Amino acid sequence: xxxxxxxxxxxxxxxxxxxxxxxxxxxxxxxxxxxxxxxxxxxxxxxxxxxxxxxxxxxxxxxxxxxxxxxxxxxxxxxxxxxxxxxxxxxxxxxxxxxxxxxxxxxxxxxxxxxxxxxxxxxxxxxxxxxxxxxxxxxxxxxxxxxxxxxxxxxxxxxxxxxxxxxxxxxxxxxxxxxxxxxxxxxxxxxxxxxxxxxxxxxxxxxxxxxxxx
Amino acid sequence: xxxxxxxxxxxxxxxxxxxxxxxxxxxxxxxxxxxxxxxxxxxxxxxxxxxxxxxxxxxxxxxxxxxxxxxxxxxxxxxxxxxxxxxxxxxxxxxxxxxxxxxxxxxxxxxxxxxxxxxxxxxxxxxxxxxxxxxxxxxxxxxxxxxxxxxxxxxxxxxxxxxxxxxxxxxxxxxxxxxxxxxxxxxxxxxxxxxxxxxxxxxxxxxxxxxxxx
Amino acid sequence: xxxxxxxxxxxxxxxxxxxxxxxxxxxxxxxxxxxxxxxxxxxxxxxxxxxxxxxxxxxxxxxxxxxxxxxxxxxxxxxxxxxxxxxxxxxxxxxxxxxxxxxxxxxxxxxxxxxxxxxxxxxxxxxxxxxxxxxxxxxxxxxxxxxxxxxxxxxxxxxxxxxxxxxxxxxxxxxxxxxxxxxxxxxxxxxxxxxxxxxxxxxxxxxxxxxxxx
Lengths: 214, 214, 214
Fold this sequence. Notes:
3 copies of one chain form a homotrimer. By secondary structure, chain A is mainly α. Chain A has helices at residues 10-34, 39-61, 71-86, 88-91, 95-119, 124-145, 151-154, 156-174, 181-200. The longest helix of chain A has 25 residues, at 10-34. The termini of chain A are far apart. Chain A binds chain B through residues 59-62, 122-123, 125-126, 129-130, 140, 144, 147-150, 152-160, 204-211, 213, and chain B through 32, 35-41, 43-45, 55, 59, 63-65, 68-71, 74-75, 144-147, 213-214.
């Protein structure tokens, strides 16, 4: 059985994965700026956020993490950190763009994560969870590192889209079709649900009174 | 050499493991409630706490994590989260039951964790540590995710019982006996020491003045 | 191809690794004291800080973590915790020695970490990153566990020396030389840069106004 994303051009897949790493890296870098880290901390956070989801997925599948062995992912993460630092003054108060970049990365990674899991003979339910972890893992670690409760815990409208996007891929593959439209649909579903969620989110009770010291 | 827990009925072992996942999941869900997470966050936290210890053990042994590949563990974790959310108003102020549920899960997991480690040719000392990690890993991650110092660090009366329960199993196996009474004794020892510790704990100096903002 | 550190006496390497685990353990124990953990928490933190970097490296390479399977590392970590606890009153206000011990452990681990990575056919860039992770992983986890932003994020003068030390080893090996002077040079470079950084650090803007509650 060929890989789930077999029909896609390998170069396109690589570019997409690097792009996802880059936008997650920007999200990490922006969080580093808002936590007032110096340039080194911002770069480290950008790299970590960019590659942590995929690494967690690979560890959970039980295969050697791929991104840590590929200097291009590391380079893209560093670039995201440097760019974030350079654009620091302009980006400082942009909380909303962080969420949108997160949504784009989330859509990319939940689909490629689910595909990778399915390629390693993981069941459909588990592939959905692993796809979601690929998407949310970087952001969760980002928040832990700057001592915030991970956004994935604070709002289901972060986990739900990742699960939905991964589910589209997993259900399609389990149904026997490897039509390449489904990964695209999965990514679109994830992004749309997440974008809708960002607005709906405003009305969901989340913050704890206990956390007002943050 | 058959597995350490070979003589136990496989269905019984599965039920016990799922039960342990469930009570840890409740513990995670209750922490999510007290941290005022929404239902999605509560479910995620329940699943994470339920399976994190076993996953950490498997990663440290160097085998593919089993629970992430078994939808039943995921389903039980989700169920624990949903039930916690539904019982939310009644459970909100129940700090003590969280500890008792933790103790039960701790007893189950330190024994099965040590047995799994021994099945993979790990030495006795290491199996004890891995058994304890299986027991305390979920709770530690739970606390980290809601920004508390892990209970395992705040009180030795959490790590000690897990080590004791795992030690009973490891010592028995290293002594050449695979009598199934020893895993039961190990679980009982862990639970009893932990329960005793909860009371003794009241007199151990733990909290830092620095942490009074929590 | 023999291992990178092949020419070193195996016993010497073991002793150095155990020594690195010990000083990292002291660093962890001292952090536990300053966080007012009890003796059990201090021991757990000492063990975790001592072995976490190497375990993270092994997981990222995709090999079974070695230190968790070797009771000597566990014993050294426990010893570091006990000694820290015993010296508790005298060490309480010694923030500077924590940093110096960290620097020594950092120098040891970034070199052995890079060497281990190179031994597993990881590329030079990735070996540098893995060497740095071996050095900074323990300290990062230490800080997360006591709810501080990891020092590696707060100051590039922590990550930079680890990267520099690992780079010396990786570049030497990639250049075809396995002269044993290079690991020594790498460790010296890491230690010197880190020591210099501790002073320079005083003038780098790091702390966030938001974190003044810590």
